[in-house]
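To whoever is on call:

I kicked off a structure prediction for a single chain this morning and the downstream step that reads the tokens threw a length-mismatch warning. I double-checked the sequence; it's 119 residues and nothing unusual in it as far as I can see. Pasting both halves so you can look.
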Amino acid sequence: VQLVESGGGLVQSGGSLRLSCVASGDIFSKFAMAWLRQAPGEERDFVASISWAGGATYYGDSVKGRFTISRDNAKNTTYLQMTSLKPEDTAVYYCAAGTYPVGYGYDYWGQGTQVTVSS
């Protein structure tokens, strides 16, 4: 499985961005999908994840109420809608795929997309 993220960029504080992650292969619908992020000098942090059918979603505390994860299995794509962005959301955002949405790590990773939020 190959994952390719897009949609990152520079946005002002309070603005919005939507990230996309397109997966290759025909087994996308069997994987849980997740977004994680890593700021310079920081550890990689969990942002959000979604079950293979989309029925269950999970969020990190810092993004609850502001970010929404979704997926379209017909398009092999996972999305992360980010609103009310803050400078502390600045990071490289990674898409990941795994058997479970939380608790067991992820098996496949994208190359990352940079999100920069200016104050």
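Update from on-call: the warning came from a stale cache, not from the record. Cleared it. Sanity check on the structure: The first strand starts at residue 3 and ends at 6.
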